[in-house]
Amino acid sequence: MKEFGMKNLDIPKTKTTPEIHFNSSTNELTIKGESFPENTSEFYAPVFEWLEEYFVTIKDQPVTVNIELVYFNSSSSKVLMNLFDMLEENVQIGKQITVNWLYDEDNEMAVEYGEDFMEDLESLQINLVKI
Asked: How many CB atoms within 10 Å of residue 82?
């Protein structure tokens, strides 16, 4: 499969930030861990920049976004909604994007957040996936 010149995106996790990995050859984005950085916008800015460039380069390849956040603060929640809005805009112009919201069955809040995000979106498909 052609990579369209995009390098993978790799941001290692820290105590306050999630691991973020985008494999451009499989078109799969993973956000995993906890998200409560001191400056949420600053932390996620490179992700949004990378994705904007990426969505310009891909054609018909389906994209999968796997989000497995054990904990995230309110500012991270806003960033996630911005991410979902960006993904939805790309779906509305013909991109194939699926989001998997992975949650531990014992984490009721994670399920509720996933459901809340789903309610706010019209075109973007979010699957709630119990792990």
From this structure: 13
Structure tokens at 53: 């460039």
How many CB atoms are closer than 10 A to CB 68?
A: 18
pTM: 0.91
Identify the domain containing residue 47 by its residue range.
9-130
Contacts of 48 (CB under 8 A, 6+ apart): 82, 83, 86
Taking only the tens place, the pLDDT of each residue in 103-123 is 998 988 899 999 999 999 999
Note the pLDDT tens digit of each residue in 37-52.
Answer: 999 999 999 999 999 9
| CATH code at position 13 | 3.30.750
| 4 located within any domain | no
